[in-house]
Amino acid sequence: MMPGTVWEVRLRAVVLITVIATLSLGCDPDDPMVDAGPPPTDAGTDAGEDAGYDAGVDAGAPCDGPPDLYIDPECTIVGPGIRAYTPRFELWADGATKERWIYLPEGTQIDTADPDHWVYPVGTRLYKTFSLGGMRLETRILEKTSAGVGVASWTPSVYAWNAEGTAVTDVTNAAPAVRENVLGTDHDIPDGALCLRCHIGQNGHDMINGFTAFQLNHDDAGVNYQTLLDEGRIANPFSRSDAVVPGDATAVAALGYLHTNCGYCHRPGGDPAAALRMFYMRLEVGASATVEDTTTYRTGVNNVSSITFGSALCRYMPGDSTNSVAIHRASSRMAGVQMPPVATEMVHEAGIATLRAWIDGLTVAPAAECTPSP
């Protein structure tokens, strides 16, 4: 055998042994010397993952954003298990756009034994970021930190963004001057007491408003009630048909708008002033089969208001939105008159148009007490 051939054989043997050793190391996930590489990717549909996390986990050090939210330097990629959701009906926030995410601890369920008042597992976090003109202004976080229900089980916090959108400052307990006109806009960050007027605890249950039955009963992208069902995240499932907003498109838009923008206070156990007047606008699972069944209709249409405006005597004057007290109050930003009474400085013209269309289309006869005496 020629010497060159012998060395060639030996070289091939060394290469083969090296390849085998490398492959063996690479297949042992417990070997501390192995570089496992980036985490496995998925389509973002797994209950504990997010597609953005897979795409950017190695993008660099996380930004100085809200705690545990972003994992990349640009504050655009959310962490594992943090998933976007969109309520079916939007809360008016003076034209601000909102991004929302929820984190549910792996293997946990939401208790929906009372389908109108969900109870969330300890460790649940909800994030909501407010923006104007593409500029992020604030991010609010609600985290369930102890067992039980209501305000005492949750820790709220709020963070104001810098102009570059790269860092935040904790303003949970900041002075009013820090919270007003954020980054030169008209947007104000509410203090804790103001937040509790809407997140008061839902009749002794958990203080979440937008991640609920009627708000999640849709088929749009992100987390919704059906995805929660499919993932086994609902402990006491109820039928989607029990959380359908009744009526035609005009009624659905109006009832959904009132449920979201008024119903968190105007409900049994809600804001004391609203509860005292027994004027309710919160939809109820299994009890809102028709428009006439809703508390909005039963306590509003042809019901005399304790506050009147000239010939506007009733809350919803059927066929006559101009003489409906609810329209007068929604159209005002005067202290003591405006509705909603907090967290808004601008009249929502599109929302008022939605309400007018529904009221003007009501065909029930006006009650005598709603019609001014000649």
What does this structure look like?
With 374 residues, the protein is α+β, with helices and mostly antiparallel strands. The chain folds into two domains: 180 residues, no CATH class; 123 residues, no CATH class. It is built from eleven helices and eight strands. It has a six-stranded antiparallel beta sheet, with no helix packed on it. A two-stranded antiparallel sheet has the order 7-8. Helix 7 packs across helix 11. The N terminus is likely disordered.
Shape: globular
Write down the domain tally: 2
Number of helices: 11
- Main beta sheet, described? 6 strands, antiparallel
Strand runs, count: 8
Distance between the termini: 124 Å
On the 0 to 100 scale, the average pLDDT is 85
Beta-strand content bin: 5-15%
Strand order of the largest sheet: 1-2-3-4-5-6
The radius of gyration over CA amounts to: 27 Å
- Given the helix and strand composition, which structural class is it? alpha+beta
Helix content: 25-40%
Sketch the topology as an H/E string, one letter per element.
HHEEEEEEHHHHHHHEEHH
Short description:
The protein has 374 residues and is of the alpha+beta class.
